[in-house]
Structures are given as C-alpha cells and as structure tokens.
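Hey, quick one: can you model this chain's 3D structure?
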Amino acid sequence: MKPTDSLVEVRPHVYVSKHDPGYYRKVVHYHPLSADAHYEYALYLFKEGQVNSGFRHMKMASSLHHRQATHWVNQQRTSSLPPTPPKKFPWLLTCLLLLALLAFLVAAGLLALSTIQWFDSRHTVSHVTSESVFERHASTELEAISPHPRPMGTPTEADVLPVLMVQNAAERYEQMHGAYPSTDQLIGDFPNNHLSFLPSGTAYTLSDQGYDLSSSPAVLPRSLTQSDLLELHYYPTPNVVTLERGGEVLVTYPVASGPKPPPTSTVLTRVVEPLGSNGAYGSKALALEDGYAIHGTNDPSSIGSYETGGCLRMHDADIDNLFSYVAIGTPFISEPEGLTPPYATFGKSLPTLAESDQQSKQEKSELSFSWKH
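Sure thing. Here's the predicted structure for all 373 residues.
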C-alpha cells in the first residue's frame, strides 16, 4: 500500500488512516511513549466525553514531558475540583454564550426589581441579602469538597479486582504480541509469567471476539472498560508508588528511591526471590527498562529515604501484596515533582486474592540480576 496524505505510517509498512475512528487509539498503541500521541488522544477523548480516560492519557503525556499537558495537569492537581478537559470554545459559540448570559442577567435583574417593588408595596423588609445567600451556599459546597477528591465515577469494589487483574494481563499481552493469550501463556514459567495465577472463581477463555472473562460474583460492565487498565505510578515528592486505573488510585505504598526518579517505562519481567530468600532485592521484583526495578529489600529501615541507586525499594509485605496484581507490560509512569496522589480506594494494601489451581510453576530464575539498587 502506498502512503497518502490521509495515511500515517505507524510502523514500517503499517499505515493508519486519519479517517479511522480509532486513529488516535491506534497511534498510541504503536507509539506508547510518544508524548504528542497521548496528548492528541487525550483531547480526542475529552471531545467524546470520556473525561477519566482523557485525564489518564494527559497525565501520560505530562510524564513524557509534553509542555502543554504538564501545564494542564498541574492546574488540575492544584484545583480541588474533579478533572475537566481543556476547553476550546469556537468564537461564535463563545459569543452566543455571552449573549445568553447577558439576557439571563437582565431577566434576573428585572425579576429582582419587581420583587423589591412588591415587597415595598406591602411595607415588608427582607434581611436576607443575595450576598448572604451566596456565601452560605458557597460555604456548604466548600465543606463538602475533600482536599484529595476521588476521581469522577464509582470507586472500584473489591469484588472487581480479580477481573481487573486478568483483564490487564490479557490486554497488555495483546499490546506486546498482537494476539490475546491462552491461559497457559498467561501463567507460564519465568520469564513468561505474565501472571502468577488466575484468581479463584475467575474464568478466562479465548473466543472469536478475543476472550471471555467472568467471575463470581458478577462484575459491573464498567470493570471491563479497556481505558481503565491498571498502571503503576511513582510520585517522587511523597516518595510513594501507587496502582491506578483510569485516574483512580487503588493503593499507595511507601518506597525508598534514588536522588533521580526512574523514567517512565513498562514492566519487563516479574521475578520471585531475585537474589535468594534473604537477598538485597527482597522477596519479589518487577523489572523495568534501563536497569531499574521495583523490588523488596532486606533493609526495611531504608523505606522512605532517597538513598538507592535508582531502584524503588518496598517492604517485602508490600511488594508481595502488589506483585500478584501487576502483569508484564503494565506501564510505569514517573510523575512530576511536587504532585501527590489522591485518596487511595484501598488505602495502603490491596485485598489478598484467593489463588486457583491454575498458576505459574516456576517464577524464580537462575539469572544474575544487577539493577540500580
């Protein structure tokens, strides 16, 4: 196929039409570390009314140092209101809105004047001014706003987590390999242990449409929204790692880190006891790109410090808690300095998942790991 003005080459000999409804999503799929791709996709999602998904891609663009995205994200972080998309009003629409506002104010003024005249005619006086009513209303609204508001939408429930864990693994596998995995491919031996196990009560099977995924009890349809896949985030100022979906923070863990935050990347491998049962890397590790990793430690007193060589250390209990949920291919996003995560739905620990008989048989490795410890 020859390229034309309406086609964009996303990979050698692979083209996407600009007229394709899924154009922006596909560009992000083929260029997951392109700041411009995530920024343009975010604007498209905002236009379509998908605010949470747009916010997620705007944050991704910001983490990849997109100037406009960073400015917008910082504005949202300093605001106590839920995230709103960047507004682009056409000039004519702006004029119409201003005229409508002016007409409303004139009508309200006339109504107020007639009301005052009616009260005067009855020789009554009202001591409740419009200012006092506004102040009381504003005070009530401010009291209802949390300093760290949850994202818009229903918070994730514990029953949904097993499905989210498997869904994330299947979708990340497809992003890497171009096809959805079988169960055996999901829970293979190291280094193909995309998951450690399938949660008890969760059924995953391949189908003509991709895959079928269910659990007991039933899960809300929102739980199967692809734009709400799991992501790891690191916030350098409070020195914490979070697991998030669609802008919602599920859990927050304290970590030890280095003077320079790890770059945005993805989870490459999952390892159990990378240096033995009492090694410096602790009980488990999620290896990232460029020699970085999120791992446990045999020095728990270091948690909270900035003394590592670049890796993120966690308490062994915390990495054990997180490890089961995070599949190979899950994005790791390093947030800008100065940001703090919102309220975490599950606080400082995720619910422990019940394991089924379907699980990886070997997650240890004979390889010698040398990360930026």
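One thing worth noting: Residues 121-152 have pLDDT under 50 and may be disordered.
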